[in-house]
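I hope you will forgive my troubling you with a question about protein structure. I set the record out below, with my sincere thanks for your time.
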Amino acid sequence: MKAEELRKDESNMDAANEKFAEAEKTLGDLLEEVGLVRTSLDKDLNS
């Protein structure tokens, strides 16, 4: 999604950022549901 947007002269990352936040929330909810600690995809992927 971001790669497609970056090919454009004027890119807008709002949709990709929204999807990322949605995925992070879903993953966090699943982790907590099984008794694990919620994680941050942003921190895990960018550190």
